[in-house]
Amino acid sequence: MILPPGFVGAAFGDAADGDPRRDPEAGRRLSARLGIPPDWAWLRQVHGAVVLRADGAGPLGEGDAAFTTRPGLPIAVATADCFPVVIEGDGGTGIAHAGWRGAAAGVVGALRQTMSAAGIAPRRAAIGPGIGACCFEVGLDVADRFPGRQSTTAWGTSSVDLRGELVAALDGLDVWMTEACTMSDVGYHSFRRDGTALRQVAVAWLPD
Ligand SMILES: [Zn+2]
After folding, report:
1. What residues have a C-beta under 5 A from ligand 1, the ion?
2. What φ, ψ does residue 110 adopt, rounded to 5°?
3. Is 84 helix (H, G, I), strand (E, B) or coil?
4. How far apart are CA 17 and CA 109, in angstroms?
5. What does 91-135 look like in DSSP terms, one character per residue?
6. pLDDT at 22
């Protein structure tokens, strides 16, 4: 698990932390370690840019970002190559799930804007583990969506630097990020590498 330094309520889980969506025991374990309630709010992720407000635990509905102003309500996303992003602000916190489709749709900017519109000034953001430009091989159809972010995989084919795209969407905020790549670092679930249905989770909360 990664706890981004300087954040009041953000954690990026890895494969060993388990997936609380499928395994309540993993959820209880993670919650106890983090000192947060075991009932989290979840999104039905669809790789879009819809932002939902979380006022209670459980399923929030279809969307790829959520924010809350309720202290002690953990909000979570599940990923395996997509990037989890946490935005902390004054009196609220938000979380997003961003793969290439979400990044192209502007999910991180949408979260930031929705939080601002709700009166939460975003202060700092953290980008968790996702697939690096080292591994995110893409065709021209995807590469063309990200002008200026084209890169090369470790094996010399065309790739996109999604992390760089997310950093740009967070321009003006204090941004922390991990360089961990979910595909080349074995401690993470990677859909690209394993075709797995398993996910690592990221969670954000406002402390009580
Ligand atoms: Zn990699």
Report:
1. 132, 134-135, 181, 183-184
2. -65, -40
3. strand
4. 29
5. TEEEEEEE-HHHHHHTHHHHHHHHHHHTT--EEEEEE--B--TTT
6. 87
Contact by Cβ (8 Å): 193, 130: no
Evaluate if residue 28 carries a pLDDT over 90: yes
**How many Å lie between the centroid of ligand 1 and the Cα of residue 136?**
7
Tokens (6 digits) for 155: 């094996």
10-204 is a CATH 3.60.140.10 domain = yes
Rounded to the nearest 10°, the torsion over CA 43, 196, 128, 62 is: -10
Residues 93/125/135/188 CA torsion (nearest 10 deg)? -50
Domain spans of the chain, in order of start:
10-204
pTM attached to this predicted model: 0.97
Neighbours of 139 (CB within 10 A): 9
Q: How many CB atoms lie within 10 A of CB 117?
A: 9
| Mean pLDDT confidence for 45-49 | 95
Cα-to-centroid distance, 103 and ligand 1 (Å): 18
Copy the structure tokens of residue 162: 């999604």
In this structure, the dihedral spanned by the alpha carbons of residues 23, 183, 205 and 41, taken in order and rounded to 10 degrees, is -40
Nearest to 188 by CA among 173, 198, 178: 198
